[in-house]
Design a protein that fits this description.
The chain has about 290 residues and is of the alpha/beta class. Helix content is about 35%, strand content about 15%. It contains nine helices and eight strands. It has helices spanning about 40-45, 75-90, 100-110, 135-150, 155-165, 200, 215, 235-245, 275-290; strands at about 5-10, 15-20, 30-35, 55, 95-100, 115-125, 220-230, 250-255. It has an eight-stranded mixed sheet with strand order 1-2-4-3-5-6-7-8, with helices on both faces. Helix 2 packs across helix 3 (about 100-110) and helix 4 runs antiparallel to helix 5. The radius of gyration is 18 Å and the shape is globular.
């Protein structure tokens, strides 16, 4: 499918997005994450040939670097960037499939300006505020940020992996446990001095966002929460389930893991883009029929 790339000049960011297909045929589907860039969604986008697919690199990642030297992204900046991408397409409405931090950012948009969106599928947004162990999770997020600033990428990524691999509610003493060693995960033990990592630095505050549940309940767009079959009781899956329950919605199960939309040839974490896209298509079709 023909791919066209464009850039939107935003305050503090040159935002790059891609369009596959004809924007005037059907309702375009915008597929994105954060901090994952557009190339992480290529395998999923290639599964859709009957509608336009739009992907983009979020602020501070990939081809959309910050141009102002700022070392923090806010959820409001991300939501405004998403609105700018939708506005640049020149269409009446779009569907959104947003994963991880991207799903959280899409929910910010849905609270503020849902009219441009027909259906939002929010796949495993990492939202601490709706979980019973939120105070421990917020403390863990603070510890992660401090570890990155004090010790750099390797030490912080090791802690991040411990956090995302943990199953079930976090114990009260989680942050008092010794920090994991980077070497046990094959991570660098030396600090390279950089503090602009999109995951550990630029978006460090994202998980502490508190949703306005009343605004989401009254949003004009349809909101669907997605949970991957292999996510178990990990934080992203728990958060998506809790958000669905808080809004009296059912969560939709997607195959594979948190990044299951990725390539089946990924040597580290192979995905199931064909199975993932089948569930995504069924969910979008079901929602569009219900709204007709």
């Amino acid at each position: 499918m023909n791919l066209r790339t464009a850039v939107i000049d935003r305050a503090g960011c040159a935002l790059t997005y891609d369009v596959r297909g004809d924007l005037q045929v059907g309702v375009p589907l915008v597929v994105f994450g954060s901090p994952m860039a557009a190339d992480g969604f290529g395998a999923l986008a290639n599964q859709f040939t009957d509608r336009a697919i739009v992907t983009f690199d979020p602020r501070g990642a990939g081809r959309s670097p910050r141009t102002d030297g700022a070392l923090r992204n806010t959820v409001d900046e991300h939501a405004d960037d998403l609105a700018a991408v939708i506005g640049a397409l020149g269409v009446h409405q779009v569907d959104l499939f947003a994963s991880s931090g991207g799903a959280l950012n899409a929910l910010v948009l849905a609270q503020r300006n849902p009219s441009d969106v027909r259906t939002l599928i929010a796949h495993e947004p990492p939202i601490n505020a709706v979980l019973p162990d939120r105070h421990v999770l917020d403390a863990a997020a603070q510890l992660l940020e401090e570890t990155y600033q004090q010790r750099g990428f390797g030490a912080a990524m090791a802690l991040f992996l411990r956090i995302v691999m943990f199953e079930g509610p976090f114990p009260a003493d989680f942050c008092e446990q010794p920090l994991p060693e980077p070497a046990q995960f094959g991570l660098p033990t030396e600090d390279d001095g950089n503090r602009d990592d999109p995951l550990l630095g630029l978006n460090a505050e994202v998980t502490r966002w508190v949703p306005d549940l009343a605004a989401l309940r009254s949003a004009s767009c349809r909101i669907v929460f997605g949970v991957s079959a292999d996510s178990g009781q990990g934080l992203p899956g728990r958060a998506a389930t809790a958000m669905a329950q808080a809004l009296d919605l059912d969560a939709v199960e997607f195959p594979s893991h948190h990044g299951g939309f990725g390539s089946a040839d990924d040597p580290m974490m192979p995905g199931d883009p064909e199975g993932f896209s089948a569930v995504l298509r069924q969910t979008l079709d079901r929602e569009s029929h219900q709204s007709a």
